[in-house]
Design goal:
single chain, 221 residues, 8 helices, 35% helix, globular, binds D-xylitol-5-phosphate, binds zinc ion
């Protein structure tokens, strides 16, 4: 059953103890680390950059780091995150003047690439770049903050994205981000998601392992 990846968003972690928080959530069974980058321009919040990604690598984190760029413009930060040890780099098409080039930069740097779609953004930009994405990330909240409520229309969009992936024949992960918890993770999986970002649902609880175990139990059906 593996192939479902649980990706805790460190946006909801205690930043004063970030290394320890990441160690703890990985020890609790998380698969990859979701790393939210916000620039107070593309989204109305300001978070962390490449130095913090590098610091996690220096701390000894070997798990994949899934960098979600909510920034505009994206290109210069792509290079910085490649240097800093990112594994996946995903960005919003609105943040790039030349989507194909930005995706290519990510792959040329040895990272896995992806496009992110806001709740009201159609999937049209995927049409000519399906061969250049390793991940499609659907936002189930408007980007900028953790702890928001899951937007149910995303379930239909997941089904649409799943169909596009299956028809393409490419090996592309389908990630869902925003308001995901043990309560709706099974529904997201049934709609086609295979990679689940959860911030407050995991870091907001005292026992990370209990939540992650419960998520896996929901996924196992
Ligand atoms: C929102 C971020 C999310 C956020 C999810 O813009 O992209 O990754 O941390 O947080 P929760 O799971 O609390 O909705
Ligand atoms: Zn995110």
């Amino acid at each position: 059953m593996k192939d479902f990846l649980i990706a805790p968003s460190i946006l909801a972690a205690d930043f004063a103890r970030l290394g320890e928080e990441v160690d703890n959530v990985l020890a609790a069974g998380a698969d990859i680390v979701h790393f939210d980058v916000m620039d107070n321009h593309y989204v109305p919040n300001l978070t962390i950059g490449p130095m913090v990604c590098k610091a996690l690598r220096n701390h000894g984190v070997t798990a994949d780091i899934d960098v979600h760029l909510m920034v505009k413009p994206v290109d210069r930060l792509i290079g910085d995150f490649i240097e800093a040890g990112a594994s996946y780099i995903t960005f919003h098409p609105q943040g790039s003047e030349h989507i194909d080039r930005s995706l290519q930069m990510i792959r040329d740097g040895g990272c896995k690439s992806g496009l992110v779609f806001n709740p009201a953004t159609p999937l049209d930009d995927l049409k000519y770049v399906m061969d250049k994405v390793d991940m499609i990330l659907l936002m189930s909240v408007n980007p900028g903050f953790g702890g928001q409520k899951f937007i149910p229309a995303t379930l239909d969009k997941l089904r649409e994205a799943r169909r596009l992936i299956d028809e393409s024949g490419y090996d592309i992960r389908l990630e869902i981000d925003g308001g995901v918890s043990e309560k709706n993770i099974a529904e997201c999986a049934a709609a086609g998601a295979d990679t689940f970002v959860a911030g407050s649902a995991i870091f907001g609880k005292p026992d990370y392992k209990a939540v992650i175990d419960q998520m896996r139990a929901e996924l196992a059906g």
